[in-house]
Amino acid sequence: MARNKIALIGSGQIGGTLAHLAGLKELGDIVLFDIAEGMPQGKALDLAESSPVDGFDSGLSGTNTYEGIEGADVVIVTAGVPRKPGMSRDDLLEINLKVMEQVGAGIKKYAPDAFVICITNPLDAMVWALQKFSGLPANKVVGMAGVLDSARFRYFLAEEFNVSVEDVTAFVLGGHGDTMVPLTRYSTVAGVPLTDLVKMGWLTAERLEEIVQRTRDGGAEIVGLLKTGSAFYAPAASAIQMAESYLKDKKRVLPCAAHLDGQYGQKDMYVGVPTVIGANGIERIIEIDLNSDEKAMFDKSVASVNGLVDACKKIQPALA
Ligand code: APR
C-alpha cells in the first residue's frame, strides 16, 4: 500500500517541527511548501538526513509550487505571519486572511480530498475562511486549538499537583484566545474533577483561577519569552495528534475548532468544541450541557469569534 502523503503549507517554525514529528512517527511521505525559496527544500533535506539516525522511512521534499501537494491525504496549514510581542492574534487577521485565500485555492485545485488542519491565527476566523476559500466539506476542514490549550492546562495542573501529565485530563471549549473556556468540572486528575480537588484541599479556588488565566494567556507567555515569534513545539505536537487520529481512524475525542451547524445554538461558524476525529474527518461533535456560568463564558467567546469573522467579511466581501 502506498504511503500517505502529508503536505505542510508553511515551513517555518511550526511547519519544520510538524515535518520532524510526522517523520519520526512514520505517518507518511512529507512535502514542505513555502513561498520562501530554498527554505522548504533545505528543511526537507536536513530532516531526510536525520532519518538514517532515527531510523524512519518517510520521503521528505520541499516545494514552492502547489503542484507539489497534489493528492495529499492530510494538509496542515501554518502559512502566514506569527505574533510578535504586543500583538494579539487578531492583529494578524488582515495579512493572514489573504494568505488563506491563496492556500484555499491551492488546496481546492490539488488536494480536494485531504483532511485539512489549520493552525494559522487568529485560528477560529482563519479556519472558517479557509473552508470557504477551499470549498472542501466542512467535516474535512478543522482548526487546531483545543488540543494545545488543554495541553497547556494539563501541564500547569500536573506541575501544581506534582503528578504525571498523563494522569491529568483537561477540557477546554470556545475560541482560541483570551476568551477560551476551560471547563474545570470536566477536567480531572485520574478521573477526579478539579472542582472536587478544590473541596479536597489540593488547591484553592483562587489558585485554580490563576492557572485557568495562565492557560488563557499561554500563547502570549511564550511570545513574551521568545520575543521573535510564537510557540511551535506544542502547537505542532497537537496538530500531529489530530492528523494521526484521522490517518489511523483512531476516533480520538479531541477538542478542535469545528464547523457548527446548529450545535451549541450556532450556525456556520467555527469554534472549539469536543469532536471525534476518524477516517471521515470530524465524525461527531459532542454537545455537552453547559451550566449558566459556562454558557455565559462560551457565548462571550462565540461573540468574539463572530466579531473576527465579520471583520473578514468586510475585508473580503466574497466571504459574506
Ligand atoms: N503561502 C505559503 N507560505 C507562506 C505565505 C503564503 N502566502 N506567507 C507566509 N508564508 C510562510 C512564511 O514564509 C513562513 O515560513 O509561512 C511560514 C510561517 O512560519 P513562521 O513565521 O515560522 O511562523 P510559525 O511560528 O510557524 O507560525 C505560523 O501559526 O500559531 C500560528 O500565529 C501563528 O499564524 C502563525 C502560524
Write the layout of secondary structure elements.
Blueprint: E1 5-9, H1 13-24, E2 29-33, H2 39-54, E3 60-63, E4 74-77, H3 93-110, E5 115-118, H4 123-134, E6 141-143, H5 146-161, E7 168-169, E8 172-173, E9 181-182, E10 188-189, E11 192-193, H6 194-199, H7 205-216, H8 218-226, H9 233-247, E12 252-261, E13 267-278, E14 281-285, H10 292-315
Parallel strand pairs: 1-2, 1-4, 2-3, 4-5, 5-6
Antiparallel strand pairs: 7-10, 8-9, 10-11, 12-13, 13-14
Helix pairs in contact: 1-2, 1-9, 3-4, 4-10, 5-7, 5-9
Bound molecules: adenosine-5-diphosphoribose.
Give the spatial strand order of the biggest sheet: 3-2-1-4-5-6
The CATH topology of the largest domain corresponds to: L-2-Hydroxyisocaproate Dehydrogenase, Chain A, domain 2
Quickly name the level 1 CATH class of the largest domain: Alpha Beta
**Gross CATH architecture of the largest domain:** Alpha-Beta Complex
Question: What's a concise summary of this model?
Answer:
This protein has 320 residues and is of the alpha/beta class. 44% of the residues lie in helices and 19% in strands. The protein is globular and about 55 Å long.
